[in-house]
Design brief:
369 residues; alpha/beta; six-stranded parallel sheet
Length: 369
C-alpha cells in the first residue's frame, strides 16, 4: 500500500486528535513534518508522535519535495492564504473548516486547484462516521418515508469559557455559523441533498466577550461577526426546515436535530461527533427506538477525511470530502449573512452531488471509495 505523505500547518488545540489518528490509526498516510508559529508547540508534537521534521516556517514546509498533502489547521481567516500558498507550491490541500472566509476566496481557490491539477478536500469529516452514515442509510432505505422537513439548532454560550485562545471565534471567518455551521450543513446536505435557497436573520448580541479560560483570562475580545443566525432553508427535493446557530445562549445539552418524513421522524445525533446514538420514531410506534449503527468509526476519528482523500488520490476518484461539498457549505453559510443583510431570499447557485456511502473494510484505518 502506497502511503501518501503529509505535513501539518498549525499545531493548535484540534491538532492532537489529528496527530494521534494519522500516526496510529489511518494506514494510507505518513506524517513527515509539522510547523507552527509557536515553534515549541511543533517541537512538542513532533516529539510526542515521533514525527521526523519540524519546519521553521510555511515556506520551508512547502519547499519539501516529499510533502504531497498540506494539512491546513490554521485559524479560519488564515485558511485561504495558507491553502493558496500550498496550491501554488504544487501541493494538494486538506483544510479544516471553513474552506475560506468568503465565497469569492473559495472560488479563487477552486479555480487555482483546477488550473494546477491539484485536489482540495476538507473538514468536517464527522459525516463519514457511524452516526450520520447510518442516518443517511435509514433515509435512503425509506425508514422515514418521503423526507418533508427538518429542525436543527446549535446552541451554546460561546467558547471563551474553555478554549485557551478563543478570540478567532469572533473574528472574520468565525462565529457560530462558520465555526459550527459546517457540521450541521455538511450533515444536512449528505442527508437531504443540494440546498436551493435560504432566508435568514442574523445579529451580534454582544459587542465584546470576556475570556474566562486560561491563559488569557479577563482579556476582552471585540466581536466582529454575527453570533445569532437563524433561517429557513429550502432543498432542491422540496424539503424545508429551520437552522439556528448561536454563541449567545445559556444551554445545557445538545439542541434539536430532527428530520421529519411521511412515515417517521429521525433524531440525528450531534454532527460534531462520529458515533452518538440514532433514534427513529415510526408511524406505527408510540416511542423512539434506538437504531443500531451500521458503519465503522464511532470514536473520535478526525483524520478519516484525509484517509478518504489519500485513497481518492491513489485511485483517481472524487473524495467524499470533496471541494464541491466544501464550497456548497460555504455558499450556504454566506447566504445566511447575505439574506440577513438584504432581508430577502438568497438562491444557492453552487452544485452538490452525493458521494457513495462509506464501505466496511477488512482493515480498520483503510478507506476505500
Amino acid at each position: 500500500m502506497k502511503r501518501i505523505k503529509l505535513a501539518f500547518v498549525g499545531v493548535g488545540s484540534i491538532s492532537d486528535i489529528y496527530l494521534k489518528n494519522l500516526t496510529e490509526v489511518f494506514k494510507q498516510l505518513e506524517v513527515v513534518g509539522v510547523c507552527d508559529l509557536v515553534r515549541e508547540r511543533a517541537e512538542a508534537a513532533a516529539e510526542k508522535y515521533r514525527i521526523p521534521r519540524v519546519y521553521a516556517d510555511l515556506e520551508e514546509l512547502l519547499a519539501d519535495p516529499e510533502v504531497e498533502i498540506v494539512l491546513n489547521l490554521t485559524r479560519p481567516y488564515e485558511h485561504y492564504v495558507v491553502t493558496k500558498a500550498a496550491l501554488e507550491a504544487g501541493k494538494h490541500v486538506y483544510t479544516e473548516k471553513p474552506l475560506a472566509a468568503t465565497v469569492e476566496e473559495g472560488e479563487e481557490l477552486i479555480q487555482l486547484a483546477a488550473d494546477k491539477g491539484l485536489m482540495i478536500a476538507g473538514a468536517p469529516d464527522t459525516f463519514l462516521g457511524a452516526s450520520i452514515q447510518t442516518c443517511r442509510k435509514l433515509i435512503e432505505d425509506g425508514y422515514i418515508g418521503e423526507p418533508i422537513a427538518f429542525q436543527a439548532s446549535m446552541i451554546c454560550r460561546g467558547h471563551e469559557s474553555w478554549h485557551p485562545d478563543p478570540a478567532f471565534y469572533y473574528q472574520r471567518g468565525g462565529g457560530p455559523m462558520f465555526d459550527m455551521g459546517p457540521y450541521y450543513l455538511t450533515a444536512l446536505v449528505n442527508l437531504l441533498g443540494k440546498v436551493k435557497g435560504v432566508t435568514s436573520l442574523a445579529k451580534k448580541s454582544f459587542s465584546q466577550r470576556t475570556i474566562t479560560s486560561q491563559p488569557l483570562m479577563n482579556q476582552v475580545v471585540d466581536v466582529e461577526v454575527p453570533t445569532y443566525l437563524t433561517g429557513i432553508m429550502e432543498f432542491e427535493n422540496g424539503v424545508v426546515g429551520h437552522l439556528t446557530t448561536t454563541f449567545d445562549v445559556v444551554y445545557k445539552e445538545q439542541a434539536r436535530f430532527e428530520i421529519y418524513g411521511s412515515e417517521g421522524t429521525l433524531i440525528v445525533p450531534d454532527p460534531n461527533m462520529f458515533g452518538d446514538k440514532v433514534y427513529l420514531l415510526r408511524i406505527e410506534d408510540n416511542e423512539y427506538k434506538e437504531m443500531p449503527l451500521l458503519f465503522d468509526y464511532r470514536e473520535n476519528s478526525r483524520g478519516l477525511g484525509i484517509a478518504d482523500m489519500a485513497d481518492a488520490l491513489a485511485n483517481n476518484r472524487q473524495p467524499r470530502v470533496n471541494v464541491e461539498q466544501l464550497f456548497h457549505v460555504l455558499d450556504v453559510m454566506d447566504a445566511f449573512e447575505r439574506s440577513s443583510q438584504s432581508k430577502a431570499y438568497e438562491a444557492i447557485e453552487s452544485d452538490f452531488e452525493l458521494t457513495p456511502l462509506m464501505k466496511r473494510t477488512a482493515l480498520k484505518g483503510v478507506v476505500e471509495g
